[in-house]
Specification:
By secondary structure, this protein is mainly alpha-helical. Helix content is 74%, strand content 1%. Helix 2 crosses helix 11 and helix 5 packs across helix 6.
């Protein structure tokens, strides 16, 4: 009896592996067929590599000032035989080095804020959709109250109170995202809580927590993944906007948004590189996330899976 059960488990393992391999092959074929998502994925991988190894790749100290070499044009000679490949800013700091360091802050804030907001929103949406009643009313009304205020004004207010800092920025941006995840999770939970497989889990004696997190949650991961891919782009833009206003991170920490803010006073002098390179970094990164999110939405659509 034991041997036959073991043989059955052994026979099931290759099937799971083959299903995973087929899924990965299908995803790759879809990615290649769409073309643009391949380029977007390559760009995002490059940005992640830059964010991780930015200090090692940086030719100069991003905060080292040299007033004698301020506003040097791209390709100009820098200190100790170095080169300002993307020019220098008004304080003589290397734009390329600051751009490389800025990628780390932008991605850190983007992914961490989505993790915070997604966790709060998913848990709130699962509880709201599964239990309903007054619990649902309280959670949804809290979401409605938050949506009644412009997010940028709320973020400015909280950052003025809390002060600038990476952790404060992540917390504020994360809390600003939870309503989106809560609403989508609630809608999906409402449609699944009376399904046969959920009733079967109840009949087998599974507790409430097990049903919510082990039965319902795995079945709503696809739409949440798509929303997260789009939200990373919106959070990066929000971080750039708040840093542009001087409310993001301390001035000593280089970010793409703060680099844009610092370029305002020098645009009149036609120092185009100060705004062009951080602006391009933000545009290309956000566009890549949006393109990849658009592909994910199509790929995870069950109707398109049936056609494929």
């Amino acid at each position: 009896m034991t041997d036959s059960a073991g043989d059955g488990l052994t026979r099931l393992a290759p099937r799971r592996d083959s299903d995973l391999a087929r899924g990965m092959k299908r995803a790759w074929r879809s990615l290649v067929a769409a073309r643009w998502p391949v380029l977007a994925l390559a760009i995002l991988i490059a940005v992640v590599v830059v964010a991780i190894f930015g200090p090692a790749m940086s030719p100069l100290d991003p905060n080292r000032q040299n007033i004698m070499l301020r506003l040097a044009e791209p390709g100009a000679a820098g200190p100790r035989g170095a080169t300002f490949w993307l020019g220098s800013d008004a304080l003589g700091r290397d734009v390329l080095s600051r751009l490389l360091y800025g990628a780390r802050i932008s991605l850190l804030v983007g992914f961490a804020a989505i993790a915070v907001g997604g966790t709060i929103g998913i848990v709130a949406g699962l509880v709201s959709g599964y239990f309903g009643g007054w619990t649902d009313d309280v959670i949804m009304r809290l979401g409605d109250i938050q949506l009644a205020f412009p997010f940028i004004l709320l973020a400015i207010m909280f950052l003025i109170v809390l002060g600038p800092g990476v952790m404060n920025l992540i917390l504020v941006l994360g809390i600003g995202q939870w309503v989106t995840y809560a609403r989508i999770t609630r809608a999906q939970t409402l449609s699944l809580r009376e399904k046969e497989f959920v009733e079967a889990a109840r009949a087998l004696g599974d507790g409430t927590a097990a049903i919510i997190f082990r039965t319902i949650l795995p079945n709503i991961v696809a739409p949440l993944t798509v929303i997260a891919s789009f939200n990373v782009a919106s959070v990066i833009l929000a971080e750039a906007a708040l840093s542009f206003l001087g409310l993001g991170v301390p001035p000593s920490v280089p970010t793409w948004g703060s680099m844009l803010a610092e370029s305002r006073d020098t645009l009149i002098a036609n120092k185009w590189w100060l705004a062009t390179f951080p602006g391009l970094a933000i545009v290309v990164t956000v566009l890549s996330f949006n393109i990849l999110g658009d592909w994910l939405r199509d790929f995870l659509d069950p109707r398109l899976k049936e056609r494929g």
